[in-house]
Amino acid sequence: MSNYRRHYVPGGTWFFTVNLQNRRSDLLTRHIDTLRAATQGVKRRKPFLINAWVILPEHMHCIWTLPENDADYSGRWRDIKKTFTRVLGM
Questions:
Q1: Which of 8, 26, 32, 42 is deepest in the core (most CB within 10 A)?
Q2: What is the pLDDT of residue 71?
Q3: Per the structure, how many domains does the chain have?
Q4: Coil, strand, or helix at residue 89?
Q5: Residue 28: count of CB within 10 angstroms of its CB
Q6: What are phi and psi of 58, to 5 degrees?
Q7: Mean pLDDT value of segment 7-16
Q8: C-alpha distance from residue 13 to each of 23, 48, 49, 51, 53 (Å)
Q9: Domain CATH number, residue 59
Q10: Residue 7 lies in a domain
Q11: Number of neighbours of residue 76 by Cβ within 10 angstroms
Q12: Distance between CA atoms of 30 and 61, rounded to whole angstroms?
């Protein structure tokens, strides 16, 4: 298991790369509307700014900025992933 160092800074801006376990899948582009809806739902509950987002078939890159008093980017990712997979029935 990887030993990640996470630096939490309220109001910070981060670059993320998120990969599917199956790197041959096209799940993200095939279900782009589901991913978009999951992200919008999380943004309504836990606001953040999407500076940029690129979605490819099996991975995505994005840059987020969180509100000044908030550093919980990992909670947002957890909720997006959980909602996306639950809607797809995985």
A1: 42
A2: 96
A3: 1
A4: coil
A5: 19
A6: -120, 0
A7: 93
A8: 27, 10, 9, 9, 13
A9: 3.30.70.1290
A10: no
A11: 19
A12: 17
Residue pointed to by tokens 């908030």 = 70
Closest CA to 18 of 43, 46, 55: 55
CB 73 within 8 A of CB 14: yes
Q: How far apart are CA 86 and CA 38, in angstroms?
A: 10
Q: Take residue 7 and report the two structure tokens written for it.
A: 């630096």
**pTM of the entire predicted model:** 0.91
Structure tokens at 28: 């993200």
**How far is residue 66's CA from residue 13's CA, in Å, rounded to a whole number?**
7
Structural domain boundaries enclosing 34: 13-88
Please say whether the beta carbons of 58 and 13 come within 8 A. Answer: no
pLDDT per residue over 32-84, tens digit each? 999 999 999 999 999 999 999 999 999 999 999 999 999 999 999 999 999 99
The DSSP code sequence of 68-80 is TT---HHHHHHHH
In a domain, 6, yes or no: no
